Amino acid sequence: MLNAIHTELKSNWSWKQRDLKLPIVGEVATTGWRSTQAYPSEIHVELLKNGLIPDPYRGFAEHEVQWVGEVEWLYKCTFDFKSGEGRHTQAELEFLGLDTVCDVYLNNEIILESSNMFQTHVVPILPTASINTLLLHFKSAKRLAKSLEEQHGKVRAGSTNLGDPSRVYVRKAQYDWRWDWGPELMTCGPFRPIILRRYTARIGNVWTHASVTDTNNAATRLKVDVDILGVAALPTFIKVTLRDAKGTKIELEELSSKSRSVDWRFTPGQVQLWWPVGYGDQVLYRVVIELLGPNRDVIDSKTIRVGFRSVKLIQEELAEPDQYGTGTTFLFEINGIRMFMGGSNWIPADNFLTTLTPERYRAWLTLMRDGNQNMIRLWGGGVYEPDCFYDICDELGILVWQDFQFACGVYPAYEAFVASVRKEATDNVKRLRHHPSIALFCGNNEDYQMILQWGDVKLFPAIKIYEDVLPSIVEALCDPPIPYHRGSPYGGQGWDTADPTVGDVHQWNIWGGKELPYQEYDRMGGRFVSEFGMPSLPSMRTIEYWMDGAPAQEWYAQSTLMAQHCRAGSYERRFAIAMNDNFRVTEDLETYAFRTQVMQSESVGFAYQSWRRGWGGRGKQYTSGVLVWQLNDCWPVTSWAIVDYFLRPKPVYYTIKRHLDTFAIGLLRTVTKNRPTDRPRQFYDFGTSRAVGAKLDIWASNSTLKRRLATLKLQFVDLKSNWAATEEHKVVLLPNQTSELISVACPGAHATVVIGARLLDDRSGKVLARYVDWPQPYKYLALPDPRLKVTVTENKVELHVEKPAKCVFLTTKSNVTWSDNAIDLMPGEKRTVEANRLVDKNELRVAFLGREKAFAIP
Ligand code: BMA
């Protein structure tokens, strides 16, 4: 039998803590081994499942489990080559991920020493029919980091909130050392599968080159290069088939044993392009490679899913200056279409990566897609995610900005380190390059910025990695090409990472840095804002999880338990500023939690609408992308996440969804003051009567490729009196850009007037977009009782008010998907929200600004 056999070693695994007094090889026969309860495995997960450690996500338990990362752990597995299948000439073990410092023994002989969790290892072994024992010895990564630090010197790495700086020396997920949103949990274990292969000949690496070859994006081409491993003399044939998603054959070619590649050029229409969400379908094809033996039977096969698309990062001169100057664009062009990127930053969705199922990844990414987001940035302090993550991005049309795994530090570049990085990068680029969703590889997160900030450019050894090693790997291994960017952020001359006219920027001068009011976001953008954000407390149900039954006196915003679950630097002062500027002070935890969520939603929403305003037509594509920090959490915590650890969206999620919709309205109210003040332009600061007037600038975005004629309807409602008014303007929405609509004076007693703006399609009369603008700051407003009426009919919730209501937020105990939420309601219009999976209307709760404690509907 010649069939190659690929077996995942999933069973017969057990683990124990290593007894440092015993020699490793003798450990296999000792007692005290426990069977693994899940595989792939991480030691904390096993300890938890066996009740040997408390849940580190609750209370203060994180601190009780620190010993786990200080000691050594063993895993073993027995396997056998079943009889009759043992005639292969070759055998090997493939390790898809070992976390992190691990010696591997097979039958008491060392076969691998690994210290980089991001690498894949293939180790040839001697085929034998006897029982085999695989032993994995995991040493403390924390200790290794410390000893390497002693050897190579102490460096700077982030702030004290970002884990011990020695982390830069070990190629392990950097957030494991703790981050400003995550606990310190030094995991270890075989966290990705281990595969046993036996073969005489097998398919090795397959490189698919699916490309769009002409400027009209009509002609496509697929080249497939196949590696065959094993006995070269064996007469073999390779059959390559291209099938569409339904399985229909599009091309087939058989290669003789000498040839190793096919090259197909398709006529226009023969294959369809893959498009990011919103621009077309996510058409995917399967390339099936079969290796045929001398009798023409299939002895090995492999399937790779591909999509046809081209991706370019365009950095060209702008035609005219904007408020920041001229400079160059930083924009993504897919299949010849320039697209605005609206999305999020991704961190690992759990400290225990093995608990992340494909279903959980899908739930996260589907939320993103349903939130009108089209790009995700995999931040450099986490991991290269497993294949299923990128598969789902391919299916949903989400573009991936992939950082190489370096974050906030002075990384070394001594020979062994660079060699390790080189293999890591090669392994991952080869693994990921065929995904049509991959739009960019990026050298690191904030390493340039930190070095500039610390002012010692001479101490930047890793420049070799970001400017030589990584770009050469990406260039050599990606055809068609995938853009490479040295770091995020990365800018112009002298690598100014804060230059708003070139490259990407991280905007941390609102939350962080200069602590400016969030009403300044519109003057603090750049060509591509790849990070900025505002934290908030998560939902009360999530807080309940970490409070873990704590007594009533602990339930206040400044308690030690609340501090344990918030890691952001200076968060007490920063929250105090942003909250105090805008909202009333409260001592009630639930009220405070909701107000921080409104604050996050208002600030981040304002940034999205203002920066998308900078997506003009050709020559004026000033801002081409906005990625919020951060989509998700790795444990229950107060953080910048727009959706919390338990996948519960915060109000800001829905606000972003509206600002990134195909059509969106933006409005800026500038208050004309009777004398200059240091307060934001949007603030009525000396009480309502002192302002002279207010100017309204209104714009709208259209991401379709067609011009639209629409009507802008404005509704003005006074919060203090019964005065109300309406206005209508015919407007033109230019294709694939933002158009300035009108600039008018706010009528009525503008200081207490709420403005509802709607955009109606001239042909269908349908509402294309809505936005409501309120006089600021919110703390001054006497919010009237909106007389909110909520009617529930079969998966639909109808909302109606008599006075404007701010951020009407629907929640339930069970997981309901809302088509919209956190809505500003204006009188006169019934709003319907679809509530998918709402089973029991009695569990519905509502809150809004002014009534923050969620209440049942009467
Ligand atoms: C950014 C990120 C992270 C960090 C976040 C919030 O700069 O790159 O390192 O978690 O800010 O402070």
TrEMBL record:
This is Beta-mannosidase B. It comes from Armillaria gallica (Bulbous honey fungus). Keywords: Glycoprotein, Glycosidase, Hydrolase, Secreted. It catalyses: Hydrolysis of terminal, non-reducing beta-D-mannose residues in beta-D-mannosides. Pathway: Glycan metabolism; N-glycan degradation. Residues 33-192 form the Beta-mannosidase-like galactose-binding domain. Its EC number is 3.2.1.25. Residues 202-309 form the Glycoside hydrolase family 2 immunoglobulin-like beta-sandwich domain.
